[in-house]
């Protein structure tokens, strides 16, 4: 590929233009599912005084951002605008950081870096952290997280201790106050130091003392919080350790094969755990081989090591020791996607220039179109859950949620059919049974009043 086909400013304009174009229809998106629990029906984020009265509490900076969007008074559009700004910020930081990772200048300093940033920005898996309003917990955390990485890198490269020693740790704190999954930041910086500077482990860890101190302090605060201790207890009671390990293997494999590589989006995926042990072992073997490749290519291909290890590092908070009821959600890929995007960009370097340019344009167009189409599913609750039941037709929960959306929209007969389908798939689906009973009672009351 041409090493410098566009100036940096022109590449930034291309990035911003394409991201805005792909997400412009996200402003039509309605509040969905968890949005009601954490925003619409949560009075603690409806005013500044209510937020202050609810403190101390979990994720205070995230809730403060909800207050900001709510008090603007523009409805869901204000929330979408904030989410899109976070995504744009993360995209630009990915672009800048990957340019730094290519120093000294090489063929990767041109269009391939732009391509990597576009893959990160336009992959449809990112819609769950951008278009899904409460997915902000990930996109807002990510812009603080990547800002902390940038401040660290900038400070280290230009010998500005106030950047890497003060601003970066403060942004780390901000990221943690948005979402706790930001705890991986010191390890991401360690990975950067080890691969970019080829530093020994001790030398790579030395400049990160403040970041690890921040992590230790925040971990102590988290463990002292009754809310967090309760959530940890629920997680530990979800499934036994070995069962959880097998479940997490299936969850990670699903994320790689379906949304990441297959572009198959699903708001409520059904990750089957009732499979023969040999299939679980085979998936574990594939994941272990990928990890081995990342460490094996440490010196020969640091770009490949970085891409693989960055990906798995950022799945650790959601897909490792802590058990989760929902094993796989697309927003878990948000930060992790920077790794595969970087690997995809490097794959273009080995291709002849014209062919690489054509391939790059085709991939970007495909991803942008897929994102634009996925945003349409968020326009209303009925469409949202219709897409979910199409993707998970054998799962009861999305059928129940579709029924409730249809009932709210006044489509009672369709709602009844959806509830019945949920119960046919899972007779123990209590919520569907309650909803169906209430719907039938309402109909009997109407008939009696005629």
Structure description:
The protein is mainly α and 450 residues long. 70% of the residues lie in helices and 0% in strands. The chain is built from 22 helices and no strands. The protein is globular.
Please specify the SSE layout and strand pairing.
Blueprint: H1 8-23, H2 34-40, H3 48-53, H4 60-72, H5 76-101, H6 111-122, H7 127-130, H8 136-157, H9 161-178, H10 185-196, H11 201-205, H12 209-224, H13 226-236, H14 241-262, H15 277-296, H16 302-313, H17 338-349, H18 353-376, H19 381-391, H20 396-408, H21 412-425, H22 430-448
Quick take:
Helices cover 70% and strands 0% of the residues.
Keywords:
450 residues; 70% helix; 2 domains; globular; mainly alpha
